[in-house]
C-alpha cells in the first residue's frame, strides 16, 4: 500500500489542509485520538463525518486508534464507539483498535487490519476488471478458480 494513500486526521491543522488534495484517492483514514481527552471527541467526530460527506470520498477504510489505553481514566472502546457514532457508518468498513503508543500495544494489529482490507479490495477489483476484459487469442479463457 502506498503511504500517500493513507489520510490521518490531525486536529488543529484543518485551516491549512488542502482537503481536495488529501481526500482524492484515499484508501484509509486513521484517526489517532487521546482517549483521556473527553473535550475533543466531538471535534474528532465532526471532522470524521465531514470527511465522509466530502464529494471526493471513495470507499476507504477507517481505523480509530484510541491512544493512552494504559491510563486509568481512559474512555472505554464502547464509550468511544458511541461518542464517535461509529455504528452509524454503513458506507465504509471501520475498526476501533485500543492502543498505547508508548509500548506499541496493538498498533501492528490495527495497521495489519488496514492493509488486509486494502488487499481484499484489490482482489475484488482485479477479478471484476479481468472478467470484463476482451482478451486476444489464446487468453480468451479465464478460469474463475485461478488465484489472481
Automatic annotation (TrEMBL):
Binding site for GTP: 67-70
Record flagged with keyword Transport: yes
Entry keyword DNA repair: no
Gene Ontology BP annotations: protein transport; vesicle-mediated transport
Keywords, sorted A to Z: ER-Golgi transport, GTP-binding, Lipoprotein, Myristate, Nucleotide-binding, Protein transport, Transport
InterPro entries to which the protein is assigned, alphabetical: P-loop_NTPase, Small_GTPase_ARF, Small_GTPase_ARF/SAR
Pfam families attached to this UniProt entry: Arf
GO molecular function, one term: GTPase activity
Family the UniProt entry places it in: Belongs to the small GTPase superfamily. Arf family.
The protein's name: ADP-ribosylation factor
Amino acid at each position: 500500500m502506498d503511504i500517500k494513500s493513507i489520510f490521518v486526521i490531525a486536529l488543529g491543522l484543518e485551516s491549512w489542509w488542502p482537503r481536495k488534495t488529501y481526500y482524492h484517492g484515499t484508501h484509509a483514514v486513521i484517526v489517532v485520538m487521546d482517549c483521556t481527552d473527553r473535550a475533543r471527541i466531538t471535534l474528532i467526530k465532526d471532522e470524521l463525518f465531514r470527511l465522509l460527506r466530502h464529494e471526493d470520498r471513495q470507499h476507504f477504510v477507517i481505523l480509530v486508534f484510541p491512544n493512552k489505553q494504559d491510563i486509568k481514566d481512559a474512555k472505554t472502546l464502547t464509550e468511544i464507539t458511541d461518542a464517535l457514532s461509529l455504528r452509524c457508518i454503513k458506507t465504509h468498513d471501520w475498526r476501533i483498535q485500543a492502543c498505547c503508543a508508548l509500548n506499541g500495544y496493538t498498533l501492528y494489529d490495527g495497521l495489519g487490519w488496514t492493509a488486509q482490507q486494502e488487499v481484499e479490495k484489490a482482489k475484488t477489483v482485479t477479478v471484476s476488471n479481468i472478467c470484463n476484459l476482451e482478451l486476444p487469442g489464446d487468453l480468451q479463457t479465464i478460469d474463475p478458480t485461478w488465484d489472481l
